[in-house]
Structure formats: C-alpha cells, structure tokens
Description:
This protein is an alpha+beta fold. The protein has helices at 56-59, 67-78; strands at residues 10-16, 22-27, 34-36, 42-48. A hairpin with a 5-residue loop joins strand 1 (10-16) and strand 2.
Amino acid sequence: MKPNIHPDYHPVVFRDSSTGKQFLTRSTATSDKTVEWEDGNTYPLLTVDITADSHPFWTGTQRMIDTAGRIEKFNQRYGKRQK
C-alpha cells in the first residue's frame, strides 16, 4: 500500500438515537463528541438515527403494504371513469 493516501481508520462508538444502544467498531468517521467505553478508553461518539437494533426489518416490526388491495378498494369505492 502507498503511504499517506489512506484515511485514518480508528475505533469509534456508534449510538442508536432511538434505543440508546452503543457498539464499538472501526471507521474513518470522526466526531467532536467522545464517550468512555467499558474498557476504560475514550473513543469518538457518532449518534445515528437507525441501526439494526431499531430498524423495522431487523426488529420484526416491518409492515407489508398491500398495494393490490388498495387499488381494488379504490376501484370499488370510486369505480372507473367513463369517457
């Protein structure tokens, strides 16, 4: 690998804003906020909106939209227009 062309890859803590769950991983992202982790070290803290801990697909709360049923319901209610 060529020296001095790759971004700094370091440990970072990500926090889910809706559940509060945190996890430590490595990333090139940085932040001014820091948090002390369980190992006693301080790491940059990045707050994200959605993680696997809160995403509807992974939590099993995802709702399926029945688009065919909606179209049929609309046609029954309003019918098709006559020209």
